[in-house]
Structures are given as C-alpha cells and as structure tokens.
C-alpha cells in the first residue's frame, strides 16, 4: 500500500519538476527576444509556449529522470546534492539527445554552449524541486511500520473488569 502512495508522490514531484524546468528553459531562451520587443508579447502566446515547453521537457526527461529516481529510491539517497547533480545530468542528457552525434569522430556537432547551460541549470533546479516534493523521503516506503505502544498500566485502585 505504501508503494502505491509513493508512486503518486514520485509522479507529482516529477510533473512539478518538469513544470519548473519548462518555465526556466522557455524564459531563458525567450529572454533575448523579449528584451528586443520591449516586453510587449501576447500573454496567450506565452501560455502556449510554456505549455509546449512543459510537454517537451517532460517527454525528453522521463527516462533519464526515472533512472535517477530508481537509484535514489533503491539506495535511500536523500541528499539534496545528489538530486541537484542528478538533475544536471538529466538536463545535459536531454540536450545532448537532440544534438547530432558522429560515431566516427566520437563528437557532438552543433552544441550551443548557452543552450547546454540553460538545460543543465534547468535540470539542477528541477532536481531541487523534486527533492523538495519527493526526494527528502526517498525509500521511506521500505521502512517497516512502527509497532503500536502498549497502553499505560491501570491505576492500582481501579476496578478490574
């Protein structure tokens, strides 16, 4: 029963982490364009871009983030640093998954440093958000429930039943 509850907590933590990462990525990528417009952008367009950013981040980050979650749950890892590093790795993996890789030279072609920094930073923040929601209690579902304490003894003058 505790595992089912934990799955809901993990799913909610992942969705909130993806939402925050999507906001960071969209905001950081659009910042130069927003500053050129003087801040006059249609709000409905921003809502659509944020929605697509959330879908994009959650779709690409699912498998790498699931690996990090499984490792931390299996080994009771609850350190905030572990989630920040795991988020950075997931963010970098999501970006590098979109870049062409040449197996002959073992190099990625077309890496934009700013985009790599944005995705890695968004991954770090997403890892911290996940830690706040679900990571602080990683592996708690495996701990046995505490036995109930016995009731206190009856006073000496009480009638016996």
From TrEMBL:
- Protein name from the UniProt record: Uncharacterized protein
Q: Where is this region: Disordered?
A: 142-161
Reading the lineage from the top rank, the first entry is Bacteria
Q: Where is the composition biased (Pro residues)?
A: 147-161
What keywords tag this UniProt record? Membrane, Transmembrane, Transmembrane helix
Q: Give TM segment ranges.
A: 7-31, 51-71, 80-98, 118-139
Q: Which organism is it from?
A: Bradyrhizobium macuxiense
